[in-house]
Amino acid sequence: LLHFVVRTIYRRNPRLFALGVVPELAEASKIPLPEVEGDLNKLNQAIKEARAMATAVLADPSAASGSFAKVVPPFLDDAERTFKHLEILSKETGTLLLDTLVFFGYTEAKAKSTTNDAFFGALAKFMDDFTALWKIEEATQ
Q: Do the Cβ atoms of 130 and 2 come closer than 8 Å?
């Protein structure tokens, strides 16, 4: 079947093959999403602790007027905004991975239990096989 797909695509639109291999596949497979989620949780906790310490320091009237009061609260506000953005991106990544797995024929239950390492490994193998067949097709033209 893959031979047929490669041959059909090659004949209809050979420019698609100029895209080449996606080098990020190997790197993407090395980053377990649960580990990223754990790191995000630790980062969130660290930001909360920093906010609590800053609030305690700023409760002292002598610190409330110094450079600490001018620098730290805006820094923490920025850290919280940036964290929320990272959290949104992480959730979107998980959703996209799940949607992609379902698109490739996984049941939703199997997709939820599939690691990104397994998915990207299978995708890399597919891409390697596809590229090898493309080169064969190109050589016969």
A: yes
User: Residue-wise pLDDT tens for the chain (141 aa)?
Assistant: 666 666 676 666 666 655 555 667 677 777 788 888 899 999 999 999 999 999 999 998 887 778 888 999 999 999 999 999 999 999 998 888 888 888 878 888 998 888 888 888 777 777 778 778 778 877 887
- The closest of 70, 76, 84, 68 to 51, measured between CA atoms, is 76
Buried b vs exposed e over 74-93: b needs ≥16 C-beta within 10 Å?
Answer: eebeebeeebeeeeeeeeee
Find out whether 68 and 57 touch, Cβ atoms under 8 Å.
yes
Token digits of residue 19: 């895209």
Angle at 20 between CA 102 and CA 23, to 5 degrees: 70
User: Which amino acid would we find at residue 107?
Assistant: T
Instruction: Name the burial class of residue 2, with classes exposed (0-12), middle (13-18) and buried (19+) by CB atoms within 10 angstroms of its CB.
Output: exposed
Half-sphere exposure of 107 (CA within 13 A, CB side): 2
Alpha-carbon distance of 31 to 111, in angstroms, equals 17
